[in-house]
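Final report, closing paragraph on structural work. Over the funding period we assembled a curated collection of sequence-structure pairs, and we close with a single example.
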Amino acid sequence: MNRAIRNYLVFLGRCSRIAFAGDWRYYAWMGVLTVFCLLGLNAYAKQFVHGLLVTGMTDEVSWGVYIANFTFLVGVAAAAVMMVIPVYIYNNEELHDLVIFGELLAVAAILMCLAFVTVDLGRPDRFWHLIPGIGQFNFPASMLSWDVIVLNGYLLLNIHICGYLLYCRYQGRKPAKWFYIPFVFIAIVWAVSIHTVTAFLYVGLGGRPFWNSAIVGPRFLASAFTAGPALIILALQVIRRVTAYRITDKALLTLRSIVQVSMLINVFLLINEVFKEFYSGNLHVASSKYLYVGLHGYHALVPWIWTAIAFNVIAMVLLLLPLSRSLRWLNLTCVLCIVGIWIEKGMGLVIPGFIPTPLGEMIEYTPTLNETLICFGIWAFGLLCYTIFLRMSVPILLGTLSQANEGRD
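Its predicted structure, as stored:
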C-alpha cells in the first residue's frame, strides 16, 4: 500500500513538473492566457466589492453573458460523449486514444461552467447553501439542485476515467475493464443528462413563454453535438501540429460526420421553433419578434441572431459538400459552427426570455467591460487548464513519460 501511494505521488509530481516545461511557443501561449486570467480576476475583484451593479444585468434582465457562456459550455462538456460512443460501442480504433483528449476537454469545460455560475452569484460566500447535508439543497424539487448534481457528477466521472487510463499507461499495464468501462457507459447517459437538465432550467420557468417549449431539450443536445466535436476537431489539429502525437485525417473526418448530422438536426429544430412562434401569432410571440425583427424600436439582438443563423446555414451547406473534407474548409466550417451556436444558444436564447418584461417594459441588456473581462478571464482559465492537461497526457500517451524511465527527468 505504501509503495502504491509513493508511486502515485511520484506520478503526480512528474506530471506537475512537465506541465511547466516547454519551448518558447508553450511559454508564450501560457503567458498570454495567464495575463487574461489576471485581468479577469481583477475585474471579478471589483465585482465582488461592488456587487452585480458593475454588470449590465438588472432586476428585469437578471441573466446575462455569464449564463450564456455557462449554457454553451455545458454543451461542449456533453459533446465528449460523441467520441466515447464510436470508441466503446462501435469499436472505432481511429478515435481510441483520442477519446481522452475529448474527456479532458469536458473536464476543462465543466470547470469553466462552475466558474461562470460562481461569478453570476451576487453573494458567492453563500454558495455553501447548495452543498448537500450542509445547506438547504432542496432536492429534488429544485432544478438547480439537479444541475449541481449532474455537473459535479460528470466532472468526477471524467476525472476518474482519464486519470485511471493515463496512470495505467504511465505504469505500462493494461487497465482493468471492470474499473472504468462501467463508468464510461454511465458517463454516456450522464452527458445527455447534464444538457437536458440545463434545458429544463429554462423550460421549467412558466413565467417566461419564450423558453416554454418541449423542443428546447432536443435543440440543446443537437447544438451541443455540433459545436463540441467542432471544437475538438480544431483542438486535435493543434495537438497534431505542436506535438509528435499521431492523429490521422480519418479520425478528424469521423468527427466531421458527427458534426454534419448534428448540424442538420440543429437547423431543422430551429426552423420548427421559428415556425411555431411566428405562424401561431399568439400573445407570447413578443420575445421572438424582439429577437428576430425587433420590437417597438428595440433591436439590439437582431444583427446577432441573423449572423448566427447565417453562420449555421453556411456551415450546414459546407458540411453537405465534399469541399469540407479538405482540412482548410473543415476548419472554417468548425469556426462557423462554434461562433454561430455560441450566439444562438447563448445571447440569442438567454436575453430574449426577459424582454419584454411581464409588465410589458422594454429594457435591453448590454454586457459591461467588467463583465466581458471576467468572461475572457474564465475562458483563459479553461484553456489554461486544458493546455496543462494536454501537456501532461501527451507524453504519457507517447511513452516518453512512464514509470520505466523514472528518474531520468
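DSSP finds 14 helices and no strands in the chain. Residues 2-402 form a domain with the Formate dehydrogenase/DMSO reductase fold fold (CATH 1.20.1630.10). We thank the funder for supporting this effort.
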